[in-house]
Amino acid sequence: MLVLDGKVASASVKAILLQKTQALKAAGKRTPHLAAILVGNNGASETYVASKVKNCEETGFGSSLIRFDDNVAELDLLAKIHELNNDKTVDGILVQLPLPKHINDEKIIEAIHPDKDVDGFHPMNIGRMVQGLDTFIPATPFGVLLMLEYYKIETKGKHVVVIGRSNIVGRPMSILLSGNRPKGDATVTLCHRYTPKEELIKLTQLADILVVAVGIPEFVNAAMIKPGAVIIDVGITRVEDATAKKGFRIKGDINYEQAITKASAVTPVPGGVGLMTIAGLLMNTMKAYEGKFYHN
Fold first, then answer.
1. Is 126 within 8 Å of 118 (Cβ atoms)?
2. Beta-carbon neighbour count of residue 155 at 10 Å?
3. Other CB atoms within 10 Å distance of the CB of residue 170
4. For position 245, what pLDDT does the model report?
5. Is CATH 3.40.50.10860 the classification given to domain 28-118?
6. Could you give the percent of the chain with pLDDT greater than 90?
7. Is 139-274 in the same CATH topology as 28-118?
8. Which helix (H) or strand (E) holds 178?
9. 158 Cβ neighbours under 8 A, 6+ residues apart
10. Where does residue 291 rank: exposed (0-12), middle (13-18), buried (19+ CB within 10 A)?
């Protein structure tokens, strides 16, 4: 059974990016710059943003962390995004989700200029992705594709089942894997909360590749897995555990101990897709820096 190690795969991506930034510095040029906006002090968000900043440093990228209190006015947040849109030294902008309830997520996402939308959430970039055009791919699905590429996992002609239909992971993942592209050409079935459990089990038992992004700890067990399947676990949930040093444990959407008895390859949680999401984000930031876009 192959462990799809995000640390190893992401290190390969970062090594390529580091070579590029070193060449830029040697030529006397500036390097890519990512600006991250964090609203409030959500523990998980703090961890994610800190990791993104750390990875920028490791690849030679510049980064800025802009903090706002959780009671920040939506107009003030929009004003900062407008400022960053017009800052020629900033290549990529991300706003860490979730945002406080008084702020409209969609309005914030749409305020980011499409050419700086390195999370790949802007409707223009989503539309281009659906059409198979050059664009930013949402960071987590992009990270999954990079992992499949690194471990040379074939998708062409395979049956893929995606559980979860969010605009961040499930829906773009299904579009990418079914598209006419590298690490595509799969037959994809998209399941969600209204897929009857009996039907869901039948479908997952047929999946050559199973992508799970539902946010329910250990949702998928051994009975749902086809022998020899490749399992991509996108879920990450903090589960309270008094015996753990931090008072909680990180769980994925797959029962890992059961999955490794049937699957041919599995992503661990933590240490899997989360690290590849950051790799995808860094790749998008370099793409933005290089100006490989056609938006006007």
1. no
2. 23
3. 23
4. 86
5. yes
6. 91
7. yes
8. helix 170-178
9. 186, 187, 208, 209
10. exposed
pLDDT band at 293 (very low <50, low <70, confident <90, very high): low
User: Mean of the pLDDT values across residues 8-37?
Assistant: 97
β-sheet with 187-191: strand ranges across: 2-3, 265-266, 230-233, 209-212, 159-163, 187-191
Is the model's pLDDT at 285 over the cut of 80?
yes
Domain boundaries, the chain: 28-118, 139-274
CA 120 remoteness from chain centre: 9
What are 218-228's pLDDT values in tens digits?
999 999 999 99
Strand partners for 55: none
Q: Characterize the bridge pairing of strands 230-233 and 265-266.
A: parallel
Residue 272 has pLDDT above 60, yes or no: yes
Reading the block at residue 218, the tokens are: 């250990």
Torsion-angle region of residue 218: left (phi > 0), alpha (psi -120 to 50) or beta?
Answer: left
**The pLDDT of residue 296 is above 60:** no
Q: Which fold has domain 139-274?
A: Rossmann fold (3.40.50)
Distance CA 49, CA 65 (A): 8
Residues 68-80 have pLDDT tens digits of 999 999 999 999 9
Q: Does residue 230 contact residue 265 with C-beta atoms inside 8 Å? A: yes
pTM over 0.90? The answer is yes
- The answer to whether the bond into 32 is cis (omega within 30° of 0) is no
Nearest to 211 by CA among 159, 250, 286: 159
pLDDT at 265: 98
Residues tagged active-site: 52, 96, 119
